[in-house]
């Protein structure tokens, strides 16, 4: 049985669906602070918080867990700057609780949801795993701390892990059963779709004078279903004796903010009002990843790389969303 911490959230719920489609039994552990009970349409939902060590032990004792996907984390970059204690306690300390429970019940395989934010502001593109990791906010720093903890636990206790550093998760389940819904919403594509639907007055574009092809920031958008596939492959890789590793997940190409807006207008058939504003501090002009390591180790390759397909699936979900 597979444990998915944070499995009621955006990415975790898509992994949960994919695992169940492949015949795995899953138990989702989520405190539902940001996750949605309605998104857990497969497997078993157990509510609880990683801060509660005894509750964790109950879960490991109750179910025959033999692998863990770890998504439970706070992930608002701006908030992490204002409230670093919240992020280090929730993301780092609570991960230690999870690792201690895994050790107590001899669960050896962990796939960890990391992030390209561990790289900070890279000096060159595309970003490879060999580049320096210099996060510029507590969110990215908390994820990097966990990566280093996992390396130490591997050396000392034989924990096997894959850290998956993904870029901008986007899109929705192609069947439209689950999708992206955050409160507050900070991700570009759902914000754009809110503007297209008339649920938001306009989309704000932060910076039009970057050294890019149209002056707006460029990011690497990766379909959430492709992320789900990579996570499944990572767990199978570990189960088959693969060495612990960290790897990027991205499309290896980038789309600018203005390109995403134009593509969304084509997909939705609606004009999307935009407000041009000044740059935000700390926003790099370009963030694009190199995912060759994941391709080589996992045999993984994105299937939904076209930004229009990502938008089509996200729009389908948005028009029919149930939570």
Report on the structure:
With 323 residues, the chain is α/β, with parallel strands linked by helices. The strands form four sheets. It has a seven-stranded parallel sheet with strand order 3-2-1-4-5-6-11, sandwiched between helices. The protein has a three-stranded mixed sheet with strand order 12-9-14. The protein has a two-stranded parallel sheet with strand order 7-10. The chain contains ten helices and 14 strands. The mean pLDDT is 96. It starts with a strand and ends with a helix.
Global geometry: globular
What ranges have pLDDT less than 50 throughout 5 or more consecutive residues?
A: none
Counting DSSP E segments of at least 2 residues, the number of strands comes to 14
Q: Give the spatial strand order of the biggest sheet.
A: 3-2-1-4-5-6-11
Report the sheet with the most strands, covering strand number, pairing sense and barrel closure: 7 strands, parallel
Mean pLDDT across the residues is 96
Order of helices and strands: EHEEHEHHEHEEHEEEHEEHEEHH
The share of residues in helices is: 25-40%
Radius of gyration in whole Å, from Cα?
Answer: 19 Å
Taking the alpha carbons of the first and last residues, their distance comes to 27 Å
Total number of helices: 10
**Based on helices, strands and strand pairing, what is the structural class?**
alpha/beta
Roughly what fraction of the amino acids lie in strands? 15-25%
């Amino acid at each position: 049985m597979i444990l998915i911490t944070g499995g009621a959230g955006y990415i975790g719920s898509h992994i949960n669906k994919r695992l169940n489609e492949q015949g795995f039994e899953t138990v989702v552990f989520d405190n539902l602070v940001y996750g949605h009970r309605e998104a857990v349409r497969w497997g078993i939902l157990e509510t609880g918080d990683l801060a509660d060590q005894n509750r964790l032990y109950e879960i490991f004792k109750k179910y025959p867990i033999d692998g863990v996907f770890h998504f439970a984390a706070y992930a608002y970059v701006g908030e992490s700057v204002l409230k670093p204690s919240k992020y280090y306690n929730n993301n780092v300390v609570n991960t230690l609780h999870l690792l201690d429970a895994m050790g107590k019940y001899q669960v050896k395989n962990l796939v960890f949801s990391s992030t390209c934010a561990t790289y900070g502001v890279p000096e060159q593109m595309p970003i490879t795993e060999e580049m320096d990791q210099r996060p510029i906010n507590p969110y990215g720093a908390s994820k990097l701390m966990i990566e280093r903890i996992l390396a130490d636990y591997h050396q000392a206790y034989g924990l096997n892990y894959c850290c998956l550093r993904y870029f901008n998760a986007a899109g929705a389940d192609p069947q439209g059963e689950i999708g992206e819904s955050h409160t507050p919403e900070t991700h570009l594509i759902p914000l754009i779709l809110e503007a297209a639907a008339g649920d938001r007055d306009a989309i704000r574009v932060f910076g039009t004078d970057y050294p890019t092809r149209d002056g707006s920031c460029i990011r690497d958008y990766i379909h959430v279903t492709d992320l789900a596939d990579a996570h499944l492959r990572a767990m199978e890789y570990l189960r088959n004796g693969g060495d612990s590793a960290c790897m990027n997940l991205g499309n290896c190409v980038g789309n600018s903010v203005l390109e995403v807006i134009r593509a969304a207008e084509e997909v939705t058939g609606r004009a999307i009002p935009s407000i041009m504003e000044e740059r935000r501090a700390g926003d790099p002009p370009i963030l694009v990843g190199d995912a060759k390591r994941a391709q080589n180790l996992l045999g993984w390759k994105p299937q939904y790389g076209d930004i229009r397909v990502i938008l089509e699936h996200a729009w389908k979900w948005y028009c029919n969303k149930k939570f």
